[in-house]
Amino acid sequence: MQEITSKQSRIGGWETIKDVNEPHVREIGQYAVAENNKRTGAHLSFHRVLSGESQVVAGARYRLVISANEDGSSEEKYEAEVNEKAWEGFRNLTSFKPAQS
């Protein structure tokens, strides 16, 4: 039986995003809010990414907890999932919903 190294066990697994203020992570969060607004007619304003995970699978998947608000109301938390194939310029919002408290 072959021993699996810790690096091999992480391939395809979800990894915590250590720096949610990194520009690309913020860009994914902004995309998620904008795409949700386009699809639903909402008027949410992106504030910041609070936490997240990423997964490498034929591109990248992101699960983010985002802070946003609508029309001056108090900030709310939302959970978003985005698939990305950066080399193709492809992004797709697969889920956007209020975060569980």
TrEMBL record:
SUPFAM superfamilies: Cystatin/monellin. The keyword Lyase does not apply. One of its GO terms (molecular function) is cysteine-type endopeptidase inhibitor activity. This is Cysteine proteinase inhibitor 8. Residues 9-99 form the Cystatin domain. It comes from Acorus calamus (Sweet flag). Belongs to the cystatin family. Phytocystatin subfamily. Keywords: Protease inhibitor, Thiol protease inhibitor. The keyword Signal does not apply.
